[in-house]
Structure formats: C-alpha cells, structure tokens
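Okay, can you check this protein?
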Amino acid sequence: MRGLFLVLFLLSNLFAFRFDISNSEIKNGQTALIKFAKEEGVEFKYIKIKDKTYEIFSNYAYVPISYYEKPQTLKVYVHYTKNKKPESKLLFFKVVDGKYQKETLSVDNSKVKLSQKDKKRAAKEYVEAMDIYNSTTSKSFIDSDFIMPLNSKITSDFGRARIFNGTLKSYHSGTDFRAKVGTPIKCVNDGKVVLVKDRFYSGGSIIVDHGQGVYTCYYHMSKFDVKKNELVKKGQLLGLSGASGRVTGPHLHFSARVNGVQVDPLQFIELINKEL
C-alpha cells in the first residue's frame, strides 16, 4: 500500500484490527481512503463521523472532509460484525488547515443580489442536486485511472475564498479550466449521467455518477452531447464548454462530490489513481 500502514490492537478482545490509510493528516476539503485488511469472520459495514455515515465497500471506505471542518482530531467509528456479532472500534483522523487563498471577483449586481424568482429557482436546483449527491449507487463504475476533462491551464483552484464585490460570499467548490466557448469536454471516468440541465448558478450542467458515492460535475457548458440516465465511458464527449450561468467569462468548472461532501476534485483523482 502507498499509504501509511497502521495497526490498532484491540486489547479488549485480543483481535488485531489492521488497516491502511492513505494520509494520516488530511486538509479540509480533501478526501482520505481507508482500506481494511480481510479478517476471518469479520465483515465491515460502515464508518461514522459525527452525524454522518459512510458505507464500507469491499473493505474500503472514502472519508471526505468538508471545507468548513476546523483543524481538529476527528473520531471515526468503524462498525463491523465479527462472527456475525456487531462490533465497533474508534480510529482518529487529524484535520489540518488547507490554507486556501482568496480571490476577488467583480460581477454584475444582478448576480449577487438575486430576485425572489431567482432565489426560488436556485433553491429548487440546490435541493435537486443534493438529492442526487446524497444517494449512493452500490456498484462502482471505476476500474481504471481517472483522466482530466480537458487539457488546459487551471485558472482557479479548489478552495479559494470568493469575494464578490468586496463581500465574502463563498469558496470555490471546484477547479476552473481555461476553455473558450465550444471546447470539447470529456468524461473523466466510466459512469452514469444523472443530471443534464441548464441551472441558474452553474449554467449548462452535467453530473456523472461513478458509483459508491462518487460524482463528478461539469458546469457552464454551451452544448450537451449526452442525456440523463445514459451510461458513459471514460474519455467520451459530454458536450462543449461555454459561459452559461453565473460566470465572468467562458471556462469549465469541474468539481466532485464524495458521499455528499464537496471535495477537491484533483486531489481525489490523484488519490484514487495511486490506489488503482
């Protein structure tokens, strides 16, 4: 394994609980991966962090850390059965500050101060998206390395604090790639298209489900070449980049959700590609 190998001896029952963790320290907004060694009579079920539960698939689990998580030691409860008897043990993650940069944007006031109609539209679209992100397909479509959605310069990294017209409004929830209108956008891995829609903030939007709680998103597009519920392959054309939605110019906004949590898409891809 490429991660840090740790062994936690559970003295209460003299059972060696062995696991491999991709990174012992994790920045807010990033993802870790835990792989559990197979043990006779043991079946891993899920992990729980605070009030969130993440399923363990085939002895591994993704651990996404929210951008808003403060530096701390997080308690991670691992739930499993041993000889069909429910058990749980406690692990720890150290969350450190990602030290993300700030960027200042000047936009039209109509896109900062929304009308009631736009607020309702944006709220409805948010609920629709979160319903998607909070659902989990047990099957994984991923069986090879991820690729980039296009080969282009990154113009804005994940995590930058967004200051609109002098007021802190949000953080940058993805990675922006330079892309003039009409640039072909590729799917980064196999999956199923679960949303194809023009939305208020993200404009022309495509969301792809890669299974087991992993989603990638492609925003501000000008043209769609796939439909909802279509199965897509890595490298397949999804559509063309654009300048739709709440933007200051044409580009591709690429983002990822893991178990419902917004994470750094490039860090997630690097993590998974090391493990494949």
Q: What stands out?
A: Confidence is low (pLDDT under 50) at residues 1-16. The chain has two helices and 22 strands.
